[in-house]
């Protein structure tokens, strides 16, 4: 039986609680002052959707079904631990991304750098609170990255140390960092319209699509011993779905309901995100609107009227419609790849198809 998202979430959360408690004990054994490093993570860590962990489990079950070795529940604890390590990698990326963007909230909670700033102010430390917050977030993000590596390497899966698996793990970690740099570069180096859309899609692929969808699926499948043909088919599904997933995120970053997204409306506009939607907007806007978009994008003090104006430009220029259409096309491409999977995988394939609709139609 294919594991449900609810089952995976419960198992992953239990692993994270156990792991974080152990890391907290290690930190406080060094110094009681180090408790803050793990305390700040708790509110953010336990509000995740567990998308990456679930995809890793389903990738494993897909490959196991193809090989005729699919196990009934319960899920192997070693697999759950391997999948859980991806949630720590994700948290590391979120912490650093929020710090670089200067974001105030994430999942309806203060971001990690803001928590460290508040800690600085509360205890009336000397020096600059903002600098203390950024430094604290940098360290916390690095810790989560290291913990992710530690959790995976100690998961106990038979193939965890195989070259095929380690290659995927290495690419997953490096690609998201390269994508993060390209995202930062895009915010500071405007490109002509004929190049901006391609550059924005490259950011989507490497900063999010690969490590959020494609690589977790590939990792799970490789842990089950998938051959190259199966891995290729999985990639043909995961890559376009991952891109569509991020495009939905970009739309929600501008048009989403803050009560559902956990982030202020228009936060991506204030941080100056050069998304695919913004690239489409600039390509279709009038010269005057384009100048206004360029002047307003990245202004942290945008008010509700400013955000409303930019939303109007995005809609009038066709930026929103083109993004939605691209998302639909990518999702259809992803789902068509599922037809190439062997019939033995039908149950897992059905789960992946249903989940693809959830990812691209979500409101948060």
Automatic annotation (TrEMBL):
Coiled coil: none annotated. GO terms for biological process: isoprenoid biosynthetic process. Belongs to the FPP/GGPP synthase family. This is Geranylgeranyl diphosphate synthase type I. Gene3D superfamilies: Farnesyl Diphosphate Synthase. InterPro entries: Isoprenoid_synthase_dom_sf (IPR008949), Polyprenyl_synt (IPR000092), Polyprenyl_synt_CS (IPR033749). Keywords: Magnesium, Metal-binding, Transferase. It holds the Pfam family polyprenyl_synt. One of its GO terms (molecular function) is (2E,6E)-farnesyl diphosphate synthase activity. Signal peptide: none annotated. The keyword Transferase applies. Its EC number is 2.5.1.1, 2.5.1.10, 2.5.1.29. It is an enzyme of class 2 (transferase). Its cofactor is Mg(2+).
